[in-house]
Amino acid sequence: MAGKIKKILITGGAGFIGYFLSKHILDTEKDVELVLVDNLQRGKMDTDFKKILEDRRVKFLTLDLTDPASYKELGSDYDHVYHLAAVNGTKWFYEMPQETLRINTLSLIYMLEWFRKESPKGKFCFTSSNEAYAGALNAFGQLPIPTPEKVPLVIEDTYNPRWSYAATKLVGELFVINYAAKYNLRALIVRPHNFYGPRAGYDHVIPEFVERITKRVDPFPIFGADDTRTFCFIEDAVRAMQMLMDSVKTDSQPIETVHIGDFEEITMKKLAEKLFAIAGWHPEKLDIKQSPPGSVKRRLADVSKLQSLTGWQPQVSLQEGLKRAFEWYRAHPKK
Ligand SMILES: NC(=O)c1ccc[n+]([C@@H]2O[C@H](COP(=O)([O-])OP(=O)(O)OC[C@H]3O[C@@H](n4cnc5c(N)ncnc54)[C@H](O)[C@@H]3O)[C@@H](O)[C@H]2O)c1
After folding, report:
1. Could you tell me if 256 and 305 are in contact, meaning their C-beta atoms sit under 8 angstroms apart?
2. CA diameter of the chain
3. Element (H or E) spanning 32, and its range?
4. Which helix (H) or strand (E) holds 235?
5. Contact yes or no for 173/189 (Cβ under 8 A)
6. Minimum-distance ligand 1 atom for the alpha carbon of 165
7. Strands (E), 47-136
8. Residue 47 backbone dihedrals phi, psi, to 5 degrees
9. Alpha helices in 55-204 (DSSP H)
10. Alpha carbon of 63 to ligand 1 centroid (Å)
11. What is the pLDDT of residues 28-62, one digit of tens each?
């Protein structure tokens, strides 16, 4: 007798996380029906994504999730729903904060309404962001480092359009927690912390450094050289997401919010140095500049909850991940 087919929906399936999550699911789940939804606002129908779509187990729907009519196309009775679709990328928060607010919030409300009616036995994953609590550090001057899930979510300045995105994640978390409680849904909130790798777009420190290195920019500008971040390679990140969704430990009420990230903290200057070494080139001079406005000094997620729920460990070292990202960006320069 054939096994049960697992039905999985990924919104934002053509995007950075969506692509790698799809690939990981197809590589690890044999009996799966994978439905990918994207309006291709940011996700790309490139060679990599087309390869995913060639798989017989995959169905792709070009839909705008802010349009209520789209939801008739989704079908029903999914086992897992990963809701990744959102306006993402700092450039957009500044250029179209009103659209960031509208698209992210409206699509989540429609998704939750559809989910509770059409897949009430399934499990829902909402991708929030570390941006939802980043304002607390600036506003109060401190946060525990490493930062656990249970910290205040803060919008530092409602007049700064940068925080439009964080606001959608803050409100989004409340929607998911309260829908899950009210309708007894299985759901999960994950907060990605700086996922990186190939195909991550160009609005990010790693692709920006690679571009400057490729163009041999000298003096080499580094914004916030002493600011620290962690970087989680995308294959490790999507594995963590799948492990959390598969775990029965994340089935109860109240639902879990879980940080996903790496623990190797690195300054922007050291990150640049690692990329110089990979490229085999070093600028004569560094042009150290102030951090971008609104940027936080230090960000390090406490991922002990993720580890205790799933036993997850990163498998790709920063050195290896940077090498793979560097090679991809060198082969796919910004147009
Ligand atoms: N990449 C990270 O490190 C990171 C960090 C924090 C949070 N997140 C969150 O994770 C999710 C996925 O992030 P990503 O890096 O893959 O972003 P991404 O921009 O690459 O992917 C999002 C996808 O959603 C699609 N989309 C946007 N609006 C849509 C709509 N109305 N209807 C249908 N599709 C729509 C876009 O075309 C895009 O392909 C987002 O919710 C993002 O906020 C990501």
Report:
1. yes
2. 67
3. strand 32-38
4. helix 234-246
5. yes
6. 43
7. 58-62, 80-83, 123-127
8. -60, -40
9. 90-95, 97-118, 131-140, 163-183
10. 14
11. 999 999 999 999 998 889 999 999 999 999 999 99
Q: Whose CA is nearest to atom 20 of ligand 1?
A: 15
Residues of the chain with pLDDT under 70: 1-3, 293-294
Q: Which of 13, 67, 88 is nearest to 44 (CA)?
A: 13
- How many CB atoms neighbour CB 44 within 10 A? 16
3-class state of residue 258 by DSSP: strand
Shortest CA distance to 322 belongs to which of 191, 154, 197? 197
Report the alpha-carbon distance of residue 162 to residue 139 in Å, rounded: 15
3-state secondary structure of 64: coil
All residues at 6 or more sequence positions from 68 whose CB lies less than 8 Å from its CB, including other chains: 110
Q: Which domains does the chain have, with CATH numbers?
A: 6-195+234-261+301-315 (3.40.50.720)
Per-residue model confidence as pLDDT tens digits over 292-316: 766 777 789 999 999 999 999 999 9
How far away, in angstroms, is 277 Cα from ligand 1 center?
Answer: 31
Pocket test for ligand 1, best of 17, 49, 100, 173 (most atoms within 8 A of CB): 17
